[in-house]
User: What shape does this take?
Amino acid sequence: MVELSDSSESWPVVGSVDLHRDHWVMALRGDSITMPGEEPGEPFRRLCLEHPGAAVVLALDEHDRVVCLRQYRHPVQRRLVQLPAGLVDQQGEDPLEVARRELAEEVGLSAGEWTHLCSTYSSPGISSELVHLYLARDLSDVGRGDFEVHHEEADMEVFRVPFADLLEAVLSGAVQEAGVMIAVLTTRARGLA
Assistant: This one.
């Protein structure tokens, strides 16, 4: 029987060069790696986007409506339906605290009940990003505090939609953002909505 479990492993890195690194939390580097073993063979290059991770929140109100955002995302040149989410800004920061912070900053809400849905690597062939997805219930208004919106966030639309409608939009392909899809499908598969 095959063991169904990911495992830690590290292949030898024989060289590394920073392709982009600045004051922000992400960096891009090129690593030259070899396969492990007695005769490692020729090194080959892999690009690595160093990413601190993120948290995504599916906030479900007392009427089974999901708090959603509609926001422009330049890399894909689309305005996407998304969920409140944000980066792990500090090394070692608890992803649940990130989820709480982003729910307040982006939509002015707090939640009395939190459920960890899953954690997933978004694109492990190029990025180290680990995304932690949460279901939040027992919502209450708290305002955004001193959080100031800039750039795309200043144009962000906040709205609520019935969970069933969002599930249908995910299944039909009308909503394609990975965080939304994984959160909605995991919530449904676990019987939480």
